[in-house]
Amino acid sequence: MSNDATLAEYCVVACAEAFRGDGEVLASAFGFIPTIGARLARATFEPDLVLSDGEAYLIANDLPLGGTEKVVEGWIPFRSVFDVVWSGRRHVMMGATQIDRFGNQNISSLGPHEKPKVQLIGSRGAPGNTVNHATSYWVPNHSARVFVEKVDFISGVGNDRGAAGIKRIVTNLGSIDFVTADRSARLQSVHPFHSVDDVVSNTGFPLDVKNVTETRTPTDEELKLIREVFDPTNLRDSEVKQ
Amino acid sequence: MTADKRLTHDEVIASLSDGMTIGIGGWGSRRKPMSLVRAIARSSLKNLTVVSYGGPDVGILCATGKVKRVVFGFVTLDSIPIEPHFRAARQAGSIEVTEYDEGMFYLGLLAAAWRVPFLPTRAGLGSDIMRVNPGLKTVQSPYTDEQLVAVPALHLDAALVHMNRADVRGNAAFLGPDIYFDDVFLMAAKQRFVSTEQILETDDLLKEARVQQLRINRSMVDGVVGSPHGAHFTSCEPDYSRDEEFQREYASAIGDAWPAFLARYIDVDESAYQAAVHP
User: B226 and chain A: CB distance < 8 Å anywhere?
Assistant: First the structure.
């Protein structure tokens, strides 16, 4: 650690890194930290990313969370979102209640589908997203309850079942990629404040830990953008426990 | 001059019957035809199949025992991620479901609107949507080796949508950022009903809407219901935003708290409801 970056700020930068190299695609991020991450990526190393306000507009300016002074560069009602999804020119970062080692994700229900123990939001666009374009996940509570051997319901499709490409899972502990021979999960980096053992003991499936680095430190420019431009009211800290 | 299609809430309900498949427009907790949903909730209708980008419409109809099956991709209150009444019905095992990817759902409506038996898509392949809907079939492309999901046409007996402005003949406009899929719901249905914030003369429609927002034309509509604040407590931009405080009251009216909510806000006519929420 070379500066006073918080865990939430490391998570933001790890989310931003998921979009590196994407070019001119729609980056759709759900959650405070992924949203800041996508906006930060565009403001720094990935300037061609296309970003929406989460309603129906494409936004050209560096918009703070909850910001209303929007420079609109396009109209993207939900129907047009499907056009983009099915064109493949999108990278989504979704949440996951359960996820397995190939990135199969559940946001539908826990327990038997006909009478769930816990009804969740429903599969939303996860089935279509995952087979059409790049997908990453944000898990703010890395635990063996989330990272499971087998998900109860496959909403988002994993790399072993025909996903277009599960790229990254960023969590409060570290960052997982799928750059392995069988495209299964590999621990890429661990955030400061945590260890490889923390990740392994909180993951319910075997994780490749052969080449783990430390998550890169946010630059001074990135910290300034996060703190002063994108999230001046510090909503990011409400999403992870330091 | 074509017909005046104005109807009351009760006249719409009288044209519906038990066991129907009813599509409800809007998205999550946004621009839902809530006054018509409440009218169904206090009617004697039962065994309905509800087709919806689900929000409190689904929750209220589940909580009042109107629902046999929900066809959905999600059910949410947006600012409250999980719809508690839908969750309660699911966990009690009291309703059946057809869970789709939200894009598959659109294609099902579109297939019905276009009078084709199915539309093909990659959405759903490899997911448990295929496992829990054993009736869903795949087709091989006649041109390539690809297998695609054949989303069957989602035919509706009736569709209910809420628009910002309409005329008495059924031309209607949305004024907010998104029409959602309201036009497709209407085109997929046998009986088509539009409730609206305000009924205008035809030649006044474009004084408030841009022509690109005048997406519903009278050939798509059988009945028009004047219903100011009819989408309450969902959002109806730019006329009004979601009533977050009321939504929290609705979401916490679970279990023992439900009968009082029902008595105060649902088992009353529309004018009493509006008086209760806008005192």
Answer: no
